[in-house]
Structure formats: C-alpha cells, structure tokens
Write a structure and sequence with these properties.
The complex is a heterodimer. Chain A is 61% helix and 14% strand. By secondary structure, chain A is α+β, with helices and mostly antiparallel strands. Chain A is extended. The relative contact order of chain A is 0.10. In chain B, a hairpin with a 2-residue loop joins β4 and β5. By secondary structure, chain B is of the alpha/beta class. Classes of the chains: A alpha+beta, B alpha/beta. Chains A and B meet through α6 and α7 of A and α2, β6, α3 and α5 of B. The complex binds adenosine-5'-triphosphate and magnesium ion (MG).
C-alpha cells in the first residue's frame, strides 16, 4: 500500500501543521460538546458498569442433594472431597477448596450449601460479539460460494444459468435487506420449521435464518463483483488456455480466477465490511448479536451512551481488522 | 493433416458478416502454409476455426489428423492439445512465471509429472534462446521474448500442428527477426505450420504454399515463387503491390 503521508505536500510545513492542529481541535470540540451536553441533561456516566458485561466473576454454590452427615472432608491441593452419608446412601462432591462451608461431622439437610467458588464468566457482550462474528463468518463463506457460482453462471452462454443468475441478483438488489430478513424468518422460517416439526424434527434456530438471509444478500453482490472481475480479464487469456487443450473448468481454475481474484479483492472487502455492519439487523429476529446484547444491557443498566459507544467501537475493530487482513492479502497476491 | 471442406463462418453480432465463405483446402503433414490477405479478409477467422476457437457454420467439415472437430462427439480439448496456437498479442499468463506458463498445460492437460514438465520447459526455453528468463514474469520481458515464450508454451504440448496468427505484428521491428528465426527452425524440423503473416520474406523463405484470402474466400493458392513472380488474379496483384 502506498503511504499517503509520503506524497508531496502542496503547502509549507508550518501551514500543514497548523491544519493538523485544526483537525485535532475540531475532534476535541466535538467530544467536548457531547460531554457538556450530557452533563447538561444530567446524564450520569457509568463506564465502570461496562467491563462486567464482558467478563464477570460469578459465584457458584454447590448444594447438597442428599441428607446425612459429612463423614469425610479431604483436601488435596486446591480441591476438596466432601462425602455425605446416611443409612441408605452416600455421595461425594469434589469442589474447589476455596470456600468450604461445612466441617466433618456436620449434619446436612437437603439443599444446604456445601461450598462456593467464583468463576470467570463470559458476559452478554462477549456472547453477542461471538454471535456477530459467527453469523458474519458463515455468511461471508456462503456468500463467496454463492458469488463464485453465480458469477460464473452470470457470464454463461446457457440462458437457464444466465437468466437465473440475473433474476437472483436483481431480486436481491432490488429489495431492502430488512425485508429479506423478515421473509427468511417469518415466511421461509415458519414454513421450514413447521415442515420439520411435522416430520418430528427439531426446529432450526433463528440465527441460521439470519445467516441465510445475509449470505443470500451478499451473494448477489459478490456475484456481480465476480462477474466484473472475470470479465475484466482479457479474452486472450481464455483463448490461450483453451488452445492448449484446457477444459473450461481448468481454464477458470488455473488462469482466469487467480487473475480475477486480485481485482475482486478490494470490492469484496468493502462488501464484507457492509455485511458485518448489516448483521446488526439480525437483532430484530431475536438473534442476540452484539447490538441486541447492548440493547439488553441498556434496559437493565440504563447506560445507553456507554453501551452504544462500546458497540460502535467493537464493530469498528472488527471491520478494521478485516480491511487490514484484506490489504495484507492484496500485498501478498500483488508480489506473486 | 488438416482437411477443410466447405467451411463458412457468419458473425451475427454486431451485424451480419460473412467472415468465411465456402473455404476448402488441404494441408499435408510437414507442410508450411502462409496465409496472406487484406485486413478483414478472414485470415484469423480461418485459423481460429481450425482449433475450434471459432465454431464454423454447420454444413462444413474440418478434419484434423482424421478427426472431424465439428462433430459434436469429438472431444475438442483432446484435439486442441495437438494443435498449438500462437497469438498476435502473446497472451501469456501474467500471474505465472515463464516456467509456469510452459509447465501448466503439460501438468493439467497432459498430466505429466512436475519434473518431466519442468525439464521439458527448460529444454524448450533453451531452444527459443531465453533459458535465463525461466523465473521472470511475462510483464518483465520484451515483446520478442514474450512471443518466444508463447511459442515454447505451445510446443510443450508436443503438438502436431502449429497455428500462428500474425505472431510478429505486435513487435518492434528489431524483435521480429528473433521470433521469425524460431519459426524457421521449427519449419525446418518438419512441423506442420499455418502462419498468418505480413512478413513476405518469411513466406518466400520457408513457405511450401501461400494462400491468398480476400472477402472470406481463398482467391489463390500457389508456391511463393508463383506469388511473387506472376500471380494470376488482379486482386492478388493489387494486394502484393500494396505490401511489397
Ligand atoms: N468475434 C467477431 N464478432 C464479429 N465479427 C467478427 C468477429 N471476428 C471477426 N469478425 C469479422 O469477420 C471478418 C474477418 O475478420 P478476421 O479477423 O478473420 O480478419 P483478418 O483477415 O484476420 O484481418 P486482420 O488482418 O485485420 O487481422 C471481419 O469483417 C471482422 O469484422
Ligand atoms: Mg487477424
């Protein structure tokens, strides 16, 4: 990648630095304005509540499932074995020896707490982040597969393939993603799930309808990107490959697609970045993605400013990482 | 070796053009045939029909080594592997090195093991005089070098026939010689060649026969001497007077 800061500047350094200063001044003012406004409306910032939505220490209680006496309490390392016995049965509990609440000989009733320990637990935001990543990754992979097949069909001479691809692309591009998500979930999803139910099979969770809608949506755009990429490769390449006796498939695989890939990568990256952002729509079909998780936290913790800023920052981190990764790929393919 | 019977080719896009009109000719094994004619006379179309890059209109027959390539049952990829083609614009694969350009089809089509394809490629590069460029990318080669790689790429398949479509037209004058030299060597070794070219020196020196085409038809066929001393047709005379 070219480093734009190395390009020649048209103004003297002092002027340049002045405008850099202006930029930071603007940035600072915007942040300050927001901050002052929140003070004016007496918003109480509570950033300290945010970390626990990612990772929290949870207290886990181990309670007795039998009644009887503690006949044995044996500690080894940081584990302890508690054995409870009565006339008819005996039961052993192996617990972390952090906070043992009983002693040997104690009389235990059903449901008494024997011990507690604390465990790190992934908070709702981490789960949401994971769902966002998972749905995006699956949708991207499926989108690539659909797009390559669609792109090849789109340039085929066979009208059945070509018109199918055109119809698919135009249908998908002509309606809002939100509508498509609703159709996938409320129309197709209802149909499929009821059919599955009638055969006694398990329902498919809404996440997968969300992934399907995103994949179908992206696939249409990838189809067009792949088509443009393939068509940008000179016809002579195909002719040279075919004249050597390569089949259509071999020609595509060894000659056309590797060259098209380089031209496809940048627009593809843009498409996938949109996809990741669009995955935030899945919240409306009860998929608890990053945004939905943030909204749920807001309803209990009442800190919308912090949570939505956090969500935005996380989306930024994901999309930025993706674009860095693609730049790396571009550099790698450019040198070969 | 090549038997062309009553071949016509009509293009319908962007408008109807009869690029070839009832062409019939025969080319024997080991023969070097040069095709000449004014621009748009159908020379490239004729050549491209011979390896099915252009599909001739129904009705005619093209037999390559006895196999009718216009027959639907013919596996065209098999026939093409036996017919090398060299293009005006080289059409090397820019994402592959010179060596990979030459080994790709050997491995993919001929299923040769890597080492065998590799040594075959190296000996061909030696033959066309650029073995030192094996690991370069085509974009870093001069036009003449690229065309020689393209010839080596076609030869790597051990073709029985080589087709050349104006192989030197895109080259700077000082590079034409090196490519023609390779082609002359090939002709002397007994390769069956069909060459579309404006290089009359080449035609005079190595052609067994010259075919003059105009308006999609073969107007005159004869030896180089015949053409350059006393052609029969006025159109041939006119054309030759313009280019010589
Ligand atoms: N793919 C095509 N689609 C439509 N018309 C074509 C196509 N290829 C060739 N033609 C037409 O067929 C005729 C013969 O073209 P061809 O390329 O065979 O001529 P040529 O003798 O090779 O000319 P040149 O010396 O310019 O290469 C021309 O009128 C050309 O416009
Ligand atoms: Mg031509």
């Amino acid at each position: 990648m070219k480093n734009t800061s190395n390009t020649r500047r048209s103004m003297p350094p002092w002027k340049y630095n002045l405008w850099v200063g202006v930029f930071f001044a603007i940035l600072f003012s915007v942040v300050m304005l927001i901050y002052i406004a929140t003070i004016r409306i007496e918003y109480t910032w509570s950033w300290y509540k945010v970390p626990s939505t990612f990772l929290s220490r949870e207290v886990i209680e181990i309670s007795a499932e039998v009644e009887g006496r503690v006949t044995q309490l044996e500690r080894k390392n940081d584990q302890a074995v508690i054995t409870i016995k009565n006339e008819t049965e005996s039961k052993s509990y192996t617990v972390p020896a952090e906070d043992i609440r009983v002693n040997e000989g104690d009389l235990i009733y059903y449901g008494d707490t024997l011990a507690t320990y604390r465990k790190w637990r992934a908070g709702i935001m981490v789960q949401g982040l994971w769902i966002t990543l998972k749905s995006s990754i699956f949708a991207i992979i499926l989108g690539i597969i659909i797009g390559i097949i669609g792109g090849i069909a789109r340039i085929s001479d066979n009208p059945a393939l070509k018109w199918s691809a055109i119809t698919y692309v135009e249908l998908i591009r002509g309606s809002p993603l939100l509508v498509q998500i609703f159709i996938w979930y409320f129309v197709l999803g209802t149909m499929i799930n009821q059919l599955l139910e009638s055969y006694g099979l398990k329902e498919i969770p809404s996440l997968w309808y969300g992934v399907a809608s995103l994949a179908c949506f992206t696939g249409a755009y990838v189809t067009e990107i792949v088509r443009a990429g393939i068509q940008s490769i000179h016809r002579g390449q195909t002719e040279a490959a075919r004249s050597l006796g390569m089949s259509y498939g071999q020609c595509m695989r060894y000659v056309i697609l590797p060259q098209a890939m380089r031209r496809i990568l940048p627009p593809l990256a843009g498409q996938f970045i949109s996809l990741i952002k669009d995955s935030s729509l899945l919240g409306i079909i009860a998929v608890r993605d990053l945004l939905k998780a943030s909204r749920e936290v807001v309803t209990t913790q009442l800190n919308p400013f912090e949570m939505f800023f956090t969500a935005a920052a996380l989306y930024l981190v994901i999309t930025f990482s993706l674009s860095m990764f693609v730049q790396y790929l571009e550099r790698k393919t450019a040198t070969t | 070796m090549i038997d062309v019977r009553n071949i016509s080719k009509t293009f319908y896009v962007p408008h109807e053009v009869k690029a070839l009109v009832d062409v019939t000719t025969e080319i024997a094994a080991g023969e070097v045939v040069v095709v000449i004619g004014p621009s748009g006379s159908g020379k490239s179309t004729f050549l491209r029909c011979l390896n099915h890059l252009e599909v001739a209109d129904a009705g005619g027959h093209i037999l390559i080594d006895g196999i009718d390539i216009l027959d639907r049952k013919t596996n065209i990829n098999k026939v093409r592997a036996e017919v090398g083609m060299v293009f005006q614009s080289f059409n090397l694969f820019p994402h592959k090195t010179v060596l990979e350009n030459i080994t790709l089809a050997q491995q993919v089509v001929r299923k040769r093991p890597k080492e065998e394809a590799h040594s075959k490629a190296m000996s061909l590069l030696e033959k066309v005089g650029i073995s030192d460029k094996a690991d370069a990318y085509p974009d870093n080669l001069s036009g003449g070098q690229q065309q020689r790689v393209a010839i080596a790429r076609a030869l790597a398949m051990d073709p029985k026939i080589m087709l050349f479509d104006e192989p030197t037209s895109a080259l700077d004058p000082e590079m034409i010689g090196e490519v023609l030299d390779v082609m002359k060597t090939l002709a002397r070794e007994g390769m069956t060649m069909v060459v579309v070219t404006h290089e009359m020196g080449f035609a005079r020196e190595v052609a067994d026969r010259v075919i003059f085409m105009d308006d999609g038809a073969i107007v005159e066929v004869g030896t180089p001497e015949h053409f350059f001393t006393n052609p029969d047709h006025d159109r041939t005379k006119l054309f030759l007077s313009q280019i010589l």
